């Protein structure tokens, strides 16, 4: 059975060593780095499927590394941080992270989150049987390529953002509550702050597809209910 490659990045070598042991027990292939620069080097040479990365590190911090990674890759990214403030969580999500784990953490929870993110990421070759493209205004979604285009140009979306847009493009005009979106995209019960997590991802998508994100044409809020993709 193929071992899925995971990169663990933290300047605390004890945490890296423990995560490596725990992940290898679950039959993952684990690569290790101790700062953002080392992480970028490994990502440039290895076919990594998921990244666990700390925030506060020397040479290149986690947030800066994530921004660079998101310029070219859509692998799931889980941020690890001793900071528990909502502002730090929202910052991590807004720059491209898919999930946030607060230290000190339960290693069983980390493993569960890793597996959940990998399941969604690896499904992308055959999760849908639809092959036709759907076009709505300036947007076109290719179900076979799992790629969104605006004005004919591909949009760089993370795996979570892609799943959200796939949900909307399959159901234009339908209103989804934040709770429904979370359950359908993340594939699990709504976590603490789940609605805020959905909101942050919606905002990131708007910044990528809307001409004026503050006055969106496509992803609209239906106050008190949820979100919908305007069927233009």
Q: Main traits of this protein?
A:
Arc Repressor Mutant, subunit A; Rossmann fold; 232 residues; four-stranded antiparallel beta sheet; alpha/beta; single chain; 8 helices
What does it look like?
- This protein has 232 residues and is α/β, with parallel strands linked by helices.
- The protein folds into 2 domains: 120 residues, Response regulator (Rossmann fold), CATH 3.40.50; 102 residues, Orthogonal Bundle (Arc Repressor Mutant, subunit A).
- Helix content is 40%, strand content 20%.
- It contains 8 helices and 11 strands.
- It has a 5-stranded parallel β-sheet, sandwiched between helices. A 4-stranded antiparallel β-sheet has the order 6-7-8-9, with helices on one face.
- Strand 3, helix 3 and strand 4 form a beta-alpha-beta unit.
- Helix 7 crosses helix 8.
- The longest helix is centred in the middle third of the chain and has 16 residues.
- The protein is globular and about 55 Å long.
The gist of it:
The chain is α/β, with parallel strands linked by helices and 232 residues long. Helices cover 40% and strands 20% of the residues.
């Amino acid at each position: 059975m193929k071992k899925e490659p995971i990169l663990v990045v933290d300047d605390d070598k004890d945490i890296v060593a423990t995560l490596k042991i725990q992940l290898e027990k679950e039959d993952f292939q684990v690569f290790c780095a101790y700062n953002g620069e080392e992480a970028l080097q490994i990502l440039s040479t290895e076919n990594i499927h998921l990244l666990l990365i700390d925030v506060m590190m020397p040479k290149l911090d986690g947030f800066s590394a994530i921004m660079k990674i998101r310029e070219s890759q859509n692998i799931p990214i889980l941020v690890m941080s001793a900071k528990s403030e909502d502002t730090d969580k929202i910052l991590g999500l807004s720059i491209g992270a898919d999930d946030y784990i607060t230290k000190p953490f339960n290693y069983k929870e980390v493993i569960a989150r890793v597996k959940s993110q990998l399941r969604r990421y690896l499904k992308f070759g055959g999760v849908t049987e639809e092959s036709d493209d759907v076009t709505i205004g300036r947007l076109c979604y290719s179900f076979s390529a799992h790629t969104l285009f605006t004005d004919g140009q591909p949009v760089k979306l993370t795996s979570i953002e892609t799943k959200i847009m796939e949900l909307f493009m399959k159901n234009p005009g339908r209103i989804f509550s934040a709770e429904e979106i979370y359950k359908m995209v993340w594939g699990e019960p709504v976590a603490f702050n789940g609605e805020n997590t959905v909101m942050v991802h919606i905002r990131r998508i708007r910044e990528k597809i809307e001409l004026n994100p503050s006055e969106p044409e496509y992803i609209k809020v239906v106050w008190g209910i949820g979100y919908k993709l305007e069927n233009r």
